[in-house]
Amino acid sequence: MTPDGWTLLVLAAGRGSRFGGPKQLEPLGPRGQFLSDYALRDAERSGATRAVFVIAPEHETAFRRHHGASDTALSITYVHQRLDDLPPGFSVPAGRTKPWGTTHAVLSARGVIDGPFVIVNADDFYGPEAIMAAEQFLSVRQPARLPVLAAIAYPLAETLSPNGPVSRAILQYDATDHLVTIEERREVSTASDDWVSMNCWACPRQTMEMFEPLFAEFLASHRDDTEVEWALPETIGVMVERGLGRVRVIRAGRGWLGVTHASDRDLVRERLKAVG
Question: Which of 169-178 are b and which e, b meaning 16 or more Cβ less than 10 Å from the residue's Cβ?
Fold first, then answer.
């Protein structure tokens, strides 16, 4: 356990366009659990002291109702991913209606996180091994020269859907298991020996401070774009490329489950029966 505990940061503001609705509110467990309920349980067992959910404003009532009836002992804070939550000097382009992607989602929580944290998606099941590996990484003091994050990696073959192609962030790492490049591939349907990030990241306290100027730089290059988003793997890839920080690749992910397509529901529900 880290000396003062750590925070589980749950990205739960997605629209689920391919799924056809908000996946993060889908009751998929045998007792009506959301997928994020499993991350809450595993985080609590691994020493987390609180959770922060980044949500769309219109979903707050549903999340509060659901968590109010759950048995988690973690303190839960809700923050909104707002379209106008931008660095000084930037404004929302005319015609833009959606937020700016997962990097923006993470930064939405910058005002409420002041220690180490673990990022997960609300619409993924990660398994206890991933959360435990993230906690163990945070419990070890890292060299102070550069921020060091960890990517909890999964075998690509275990993250494919039988119901259609998916997008995956392929990790290339060196002999010391540190990230060299991260490549977002779309329309992936064929297995390989690659390891991928499913957006489970263990992050030191200073991560937010490092992300903020990179996000501002991204916005400066896309001031009038009404559609572009900046995904977390892209931000981290730039960070590594410029030598601003390092990422340890921990190949500990097992048993991932997710619902990219609506037809994934039945498979996930069946497999979650064994989890409880």
Answer: bbbebeeeee
